[in-house]
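> Could you send the DRBM domain-containing protein prediction when you get a chance?

Sure thing. Input:
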Amino acid sequence: MAYGQSWQEKLEAACREWRIAVPVYQIVSDRRGGRTAWSSRVTVYGTVHNAKFWYDGKNLRNAKEDAAEVALNYLIGLFGASNGTGRGGW
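Output:
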C-alpha cells in the first residue's frame, strides 16, 4: 500500500486483496439540542463497524475515515497482515 492513502482507500484495497465485497458506508445523524451530530458506519465482511466519534456536518469525510479505520483493524485481526508487509504496510 502506498504511504499517504486514506483509510477508505486502504480498506478498499484490503477487500480486493482478500477477495471480499467492497465496503458499504452509511452516514448517520443524531439531533443534539439545537445541533446535529454526524457519524458513519461501514459494512464489510458482513459486519457493521461504527466510527468512534461524532462530527460536525462539514467533517463527514472524517466520519467515513474513522469507520474505515475501525473496519480495517477488524479485518487485519481476522485475516492477519497482508502479504507479510505487516500492519505498518497499511
